[in-house]
Amino acid sequence: MPLPHPEEDREPIHTRTIAIQAYRRADGLYDVEGQLQDKRAHDITLPRGPLPAGEPIHDMRLRLTVDADATIVAVAASTDAAPFGRSCTTITPKYEELVGLRVGPGFRSAVRRLLAGVNGCTHLTELLLTMGTGVIQALVGQVPRLDDAKPFSLDGCHALDTSGPVVAQFHPRWYRPRPDAHSQNSQNSNDGSRQIQNEET
Q1: pTM exceeding 0.85
Q2: What is the spatial distance between Cα 18 and Cα 49, in angstroms, rounded to a whole number?
């Protein structure tokens, strides 16, 4: 359902768009491409000069080539628009150091260690972190999963709580029900009775 209608009149100021597209390649690998754009609704002046409304302040692109195990085997990065021109674009080769990193648990922490602060571009790294989930989504249904391997997504969000109804229905093997309130209350009652008996003896 849509958001509730705003209570006050308003005017647009800024738009950020992130788009991710995944491709299956003929050689068995996968390309996941992302683009981040920031645009202003009004004319502004940047260090590189005037920028008309609707023209991108930031326009960054990344391509991650991954194998069936979600390991990055190649990276391409480009910056077509940035506030400080060449001072921003010279960092793009740093992203090639992602090769060998596996997209999965620990990916975000590894990215931050590698590209934190002056070692990266704030906006390229933000795009990269979003693309991590894009890689996972791209591989779902493409790569056979071992039946005895717990899906990484379980317990990763509210809906996929292993004690919840979604997991009970779609992943019954990994369903772990919590003790219900009645059982918990009974246990508490029994514990209390045993404590009273111990105190009396």
Answers
A1: no
A2: 25
Q: Tell me which residue of 135, 136, 129 sits closest to 115, measured CA to CA.
A: 129
Produce one character per residue of 175-191: b if its CB has 16 or more CB atoms within 10 Å, e if not.
beeeeeeeeeeeeeeee
88: left (phi over 0), alpha (psi -120 to 50) or beta: alpha
CB neighbours of 5 closer than 8 A, spacing ≥ 6?
none
Contact 14, 39 (CB under 8 A): yes
The sign of the torsion formed by the CA atoms of 50, 63, 141, 145 equals: negative
Specify the amino acid at residue 158: H
Q: Is the pLDDT of residue 173 over 90?
A: no
Tokens standing for residue 200: 């009396």
DSSP state letter for 71? B
Q: Are 88 and 121 in contact (CB under 8 A)?
A: yes
For the chain, give percent helix, strand, coil, nearest 5: 35, 25, 40
